[in-house]
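User: Please predict the structure of the protein below. I'd like the answer in structure-token form so I can feed it into my own downstream comparison script.

Assistant: Understood. Taking the following sequence of 211 residues as input:
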Amino acid sequence: MENILVVGATGTTGRKIVNLLRTSQYFEPIAMVRKESQIKEFSDQDIKTVLGNLEEDVSHTLSNIDKVVFAAGSGGKKVVEVDQEGAKKIIDASKNHTIKKFVMLSSMGADQPEKATELKDYLQAKHNADEYLKASNVPYAIVRPGSLTNEKGTGKIEIGQALQKQGSISRDDVALVLTRTLHDDSAANRSFEILSGDVLIGKALDSISNR
């Protein structure tokens, strides 16, 4: 059983990730929360937590952690402080704690933020964090979904290194992809885009892992 630090555990997608991990036979979630008042939500479900603020020192949050899912986001309010520098702090701490895998929730368009017509600052921050992770020597997977929806997941996606089109995907399916990608042999040191599609998530991830 591996301990998984879920950064952004109180977000909409983060909660879905935590709930998937708590039913897993392979992983145990450790929810990173910013305020003490947020602990009860998780402790009531017997989920462990750690206090950490991405705008402050977070090196303590990686103790006894095997892998990381970074699903935090500032909602466009503090893209440099949280989406970029906060991610870098967790990446640095991951290096120091020899984390076995770092799964980054990024965004479609983060590979070429200069081409964006909207959310350019956000995509630039995500791009900088992604590039920092790639250069860190921490084993990684970078997942870049299209627009997130709250529709029920289908368990099926379209996947590719660069899909060359716009689209959307449910948070349910994104959370499922992120948790599946935690396995050592899944999309190791790969970055890829995902949209709603027709291929089962497991099969889709196998296709990107074997390239």
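That's the full token string. The longest strand covers residues 27-33.
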